[in-house]
Amino acid sequence: MEALAELFETNRIIVLTVYGQVFFVLGLAIALQSLKRSALPLARPLPWLAAFGIVHGFHEWGYLFIPIQSSYLPLPVTEGLLVLQLLMKAVSFALLLQFGVELVAAMTRLPILPRLRLLPAAALLAWGGATLAVSALYPGYLPDPGAWLQEGQIDAALAAVGAPLAIGDVLARWMMALPGAALAAWGLMASARSVAAIARPTVLAGLQLAAIAFALYALVGGVIGQPAPFPPASVLNAATVREVLGIPIEVLRSAAGLLIAVAIIVALDLFEQETDRALAAARRRELLARERERIGRDLHDGIIQSIYAAGLHLDEASAALDSSAEVPKARIRTVLGELERISNDIRATIFDLRSGGLETLDAEEIVRSVADELRANTLVELQLVVDGDWRPQLTPEQAAQLHQIVHEAFSNVLRHARARRVDVRLVYAKRELQLEIRDDGAGFDSEAVADRSRPDSKHGLPNMRHRAALLNATLTVKSAPGRGTELSLTMPVATALHPG
Questions:
Q1: For residue 494, what are the β-bridge partners?
Q2: Residue 28: which residues within 8 A CB-CB, separation 6 or more?
Q3: How open is the CA angle 376-290-292, to the nearest 5 degrees?
Q4: Would you list the DSSP string of 101-133?
Q5: What is the DSSP string of 413-443?
């Protein structure tokens, strides 16, 4: 054991260099990964892990540079650097805790969890107060000399700030590193389960290995700290690990960090897979949109024009008949009415074809794109008004369901309402989006169709109500025969202030 301990102590610079480099590379690899457009729950918390890796890497390198520079710096500057290094350690662990909290919040979506996002900041403030308070109880305590390289005037600096350094190290690990690593382990395992159906086996293995590595880091990096004058840190600490195993605790932490870095880098392939799927889906949507446009153009330029020409011939034939031929004229009028109905149905089909795609998450663009198709295929006058200082941040699921609700509502106007004017109003409030669609069409008996047990394929209201329920939204429809229809949708959304 003594020979092994001496070997590591002799190569301590290499150990600390590798330790810092492992976490720095972890942070850099995540930071270089583009996550902004990802819809995966794992994407949002990862920048916190990147920040932890980079800050913690610089903190560990401080164990190399501060003792070396202490030979050339005034004593107060050396003391200040040691305190700054301690603060970097606490901040890095707070970032790790933030990653764990954000990851668990993303995976579970429980109502109470958003409040826990303030926990890391509160823990960091509590750590600062606890470090000062406990250090005041042990003013003459000195940290384990093995934790710092004894060069230059570092001994004198440690004598001045030794108690806060050792006590702050232990409290930071207990209060932030331990719960942060434990939450990260739990969240990564949950992430592996959530993407099991779409991810490659290597990605799943990477997520699971990362969870195991964080659980290991919770022990060696969260439980075991520097020796402190109170239990259990006075018994279970870095010095006892070195005495029992002959291995510095930094070696074990480096091993855990290396596992974390390798596993996370392997798991980042998940976002490459997502990008590949998104590109393939975009290509399919483009081909489908082109095909829809072609079919719609053929219907409009071919069949509708033929029906229109047939109607003109029938009008001419009706005009050529004398006044006594009422029966043939009545039949011609019936055929003309049927041709008009067929023409309207084809226009509605063209509207459905051209409105079938969705390539935006912006609520106004969604409504405006469907409204433009309604204008293009009918003579309906349509006005869109947008109010509010907030900008809704729609998820892909919310955008898809909103698009379908708007499309269904406008389809009803086109197919059944025979309206001449449609007024649309979007209202952006904090955490809420309101959509109102009013027409001056034929209307219908809204009380008769309010019974959900009755099929109502004519107006599509059950579909809209079902989609509203998926959005946790409120949908109301008011209508009466001859008085038009008013549809109102209120849905919860994440929001941000409009720029400027």
A1: 393
A2: 50, 53, 54
A3: 60
A4: HHHHHHHH--TTHHHHTTHHHHHHHHHHHHHHH
A5: IIIII--SEEEEEEEEETTEEEEEEEE-S--
Q: Give the neighbor-by-neighbor strand order of the sheet with 485-492.
A: 381-387, 421-429, 432-439, 485-492, 474-479
**From start to end of 120-274, where are the E strands?**
none
pLDDT tens per residue, range 17-43: 777 888 898 889 888 876 666 777 888
Distance (Å, rounded) from C-alpha 181 to C-alpha 189?
12
Helix (H) or strand (E) holding 475: strand 474-479
Measure the CA–CA gap between 87 and 81, rounded to whole angstroms.
10
Amino acid at 166: A
Name the token pair of 32. 């270089």
**Three-state SS at 159:** helix
Q: Dihedral of CA 199/205/211/213: which sign?
A: negative
46, 105, 151, 388, 411 from 395: Cα distances, Å: 18, 16, 56, 19, 24
| Cα-based distances in Å from 425 to 31, 186, 363, 370, 382 | 41, 44, 11, 14, 11
Side-chain-side CA neighbours of 293 within 13 Å: the count stands at: 7
CA distance between the termini of the chain: 66
Residue indicated by tokens 């592996």: 192
pLDDT tens digits, one per residue of 285-323 = 667 667 666 666 666 566 666 676 676 767 777 676 666
Q: What is the pLDDT of the chain when averaged over all its residues?
A: 79
Q: How far apart are CA 147 and CA 242, in angstroms?
A: 11
